[in-house]
Amino acid sequence: MTDPKVSIVVAIYKSEAFLPKLINSLINQTYKNIEIILIDDGSPDRSGSICDQYKEKDSRIKVVHETNNGCCAARNAGINLATGEYLVIVDGDDWLAPDCVEYLLNIAISTKSDMALTDNIFTSRNQEQINFNDKIEIWSPEEATKKLIYPYMEIGPWNKIYKIDVLKKNSISFSVPWSGEGLYFITTFAQHSNHIGVGHRKVYYYRLNNINSGLTHYNVIMGINALANIKGIGENLYIDTPGVRKAVEWHIWKNYNFLLMLILATKSKKKYKKEYRTCLWKIRELLIPVVIKSELPLRHKFKMIVIGLFPSYFAKRNIKIKDKELKKDLVISEQK
Hints:
- With 336 residues, the chain is an alpha/beta fold.
- Helix 2 links the parallel strand 2 and strand 3.
- An eight-stranded mixed beta sheet has the order 3-2-1-4-9-6-10-8, sandwiched between helices.
- The longest helix has 24 residues.
């Protein structure tokens, strides 16, 4: 394959303010043999009609309008329509650098990898490129799985490229509850890959100032699902080594902290009384084993110990930091 087709799947919900920037970034990719699959997940705004307008302008665009079933179902619908040899996932409020697809595809082909990624991203807060030699690496499935779970990079399904035949052969999909679905998808794919090609340039723009995004407002169910998904990863490991198992145990501990933060942020200790108590118990019970076993730097382990001793304090502190950062993003970042 000298010119393989790349399918780009985008699940869209309440994204009308961001769609022109997103879709234009897809249309104007330097790599031209692409199909763009836009899944309107029953969005109540003008997102669907905007997608239809762009479909009339570019024959590479496919648009599907569905009832609202969440981003997991929308992505699955897009994947089922994909006719390319490779797959790229994009969130409905983000956008791509002009050479994003070309860059990721070149890594995959040059390293003969089933999956390729870059371990750095742009954000709407930081749009400076990494200024060092982009030395391409090849990770084994075990190494990649560990680094994705700890994580040493962004854990979303975006900013990566996947061979579709590997995905279909192993029935890999987003058929798990939101959120944590991205980590489930990428770790499952990594475990079934021959190896993973890794670059370091930033080519994906991740938006931090979308007030409709699930990551910019607090939702306890999101934390409950994320905890269930990381436990599910541990229960369904294809590469079940001590190193991967240690990474899973660390991430479970981390997600108890995440769930605690969401409960406190939503002031729902009474509603989620059982979950609140379980979080405090598990954070302390799992702390020492996770600190001892996890393959993390000593400074990180010291921070874990401090957080584990005062989990509620650090959860509240984290809430204040996140709220302050979001307010700054809404002021200094144009929604375009």
